[in-house]
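Bench notes, bay 3.
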Amino acid sequence: LRAAIDGRVRWGRFDGARALVLASGRKGAARGALLARIGDGDSAETSASGPMPLSQAVAGIVPALAAGDQELARTLARRADLGTVAKEDTGSIGVLFNAARFIGDKELALRVGRDWVRLELGHSTYPYQLEQLVESLLSGLDGETGLALARYLVGRVLEDPEKNAQTVTILPKLARRFEESVVDAEQVRTLLD
């Protein structure tokens, strides 16, 4: 059933996909999960409040955007549970970030970017991978929100300088990117101690 629904959604046949779900006889959460794959904002799963699994949010965002429902895409991106995400699933966060950018919601893009950086630091990502991620995120943000993300990264690195010692090499590159200070003198002293 999922493959048939996804195939219809991929080709923009949302009505056909919705008809499949409705004819399937599924009820409750199972039906809501299938409707979320289509981006149907009327389902209980997408209209409820509170966090939802990242995979479910990601599955509903692209169909919502394809259907022109930016509010549903925004709601799904906001509801995605980014508390703990397995290392192999962190790439899915890019869908949330890009959806926020597409919608023009700078605050949501910044929040998703911060969560992504936090998760990658928590997974002890290699410094070059983190640097590529940060560069990618910064290129998608305006100057003000980019600076906020850079300062967030600095704060996270300085929270545990021993654990994040290899990540320190990113800081000078961030400092050169912005006209304003990313790292203040007290943070540098803390790092050197």
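Next record in the batch:
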Amino acid sequence: TQASTNEIDNIPLVDVPNSTIQLGGTFESFYSNIWFDQYAGISGNMFGRSSFKNLHINSKRHIIDFGYGSNNTDVSDIYFNYYDNPASDIEVSLIYINESSHDLIINNIYGSGGWNGNNIINIAGGAHDIYLNNSKFNFPSLSNNNFGVFISDESGEVYSRNITIENWYMNCEEIGQFLRIAGDNANDTIVRD
């Protein structure tokens, strides 16, 4: 829901912003040609064998937050524009993939505006076989000590792996580091074409 009041007793909701597409638990679901003005983009767990295409997201928070086993899903032709609103100012990653999500293709993502959050891409918690291609992020006011791309292991027990990033462009004022790979199983091996 995007309701701004509790619809039972009409009391305004406070500090509970959400997304139009959230919670997940979908299988073979298809979302296309949708325009959103909302707090956040696509958020949830277990998006399975689904497709998100040609979405126009005006949001303050993020484009994608996939967790808990989201898999075999295609996200393409997404147009994100930073949209200021009075919701929470908690900094998050623009694209967040976590908790063993796998076999995701994220292609043709375009971000612009005054977004000044955390990392642009954060992959963690055993996420694997992630393909991020042909994307452009133009955030000229983005200025922080975080990372363009942050890939990490978790507690030396869960390893993120098989991450491919190709044809990726980022424009920002300042960022701490373009790529950081961290964790007990991290090494300096980066294969590039």
